[in-house]
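RECORD TYPE: inverse folding
INPUT: structure tokens
STRUCTURE:
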């Protein structure tokens, strides 16, 4: 699973992140909606900044994302799950990964700071601009290859890449072939 990197500069949190009541979900529905919208924006920005595609809530509760040491406040696991559910339902920016569960509940989720269709557009644009049409590239070349260094999708989680390629396949702009560990893709 992708984790934060120490070589990237610190993420700048908004002032709200230092407001103690922000860490307790509010009972008023309109206030709660505004609070979850703000949390969602923070999570998306944080994950994008650190290039996180998957988030383990049990791990993330100890990170500065959900824990502000300066004010000694932490979002609870229950509230973090409610936040992820909000992100999933309201704007399809999160999705539970059900393979790892804690006490019968999902613990790991995808954070879609770019959705698969948005990644597909970026890939398609890169294919066009680099003259890769009708060429065969491996998933490794796309996610880790020299030619993709400096692109937004370099270092991308393989499953996110596969989903993004799936969008292009459905549009008839790519064909994926090979076995799971040796997949190739041809772009049209």
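DESIGNED SEQUENCE:
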């Amino acid at each position: 699973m992708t984790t934060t990197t120490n070589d990237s500069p610190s993420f700048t949190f908004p002032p709200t992140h230092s407001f103690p009541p922000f860490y307790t979900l509010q009972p008023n529905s309109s206030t709660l909606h505004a609070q979850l919208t703000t949390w969602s924006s923070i999570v998306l920005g944080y994950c994008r900044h650190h290039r996180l595609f998957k988030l383990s809530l049990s791990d993330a509760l100890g990170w500065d994302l959900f824990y502000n040491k300066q004010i000694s406040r932490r979002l609870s696991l229950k509230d973090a799950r409610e936040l992820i559910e909000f992100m999933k339902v309201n704007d399809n920016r999160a999705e539970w990964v059900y393979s790892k569960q804690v006490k019968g509940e999902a613990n790991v989720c995808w954070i879609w700071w770019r959705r698969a269709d948005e990644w597909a557009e970026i890939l398609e644009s890169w294919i066009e601009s680099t003259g890769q049409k009708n060429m065969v590239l491996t998933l490794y070349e796309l996610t880790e290859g020299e030619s993709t260094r400096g692109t937004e999708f370099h270092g991308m989680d393989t499953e996110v890449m596969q989903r993004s390629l799936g969008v292009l396949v459905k549009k008839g702009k790519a064909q994926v072939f090979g076995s799971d560990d040796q997949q190739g893709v041809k772009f049209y």
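NOTES: The beta strands are 54-56, 67-68, 73-74, 94-102, 105-111, 136-138, 174-177, 184-187.
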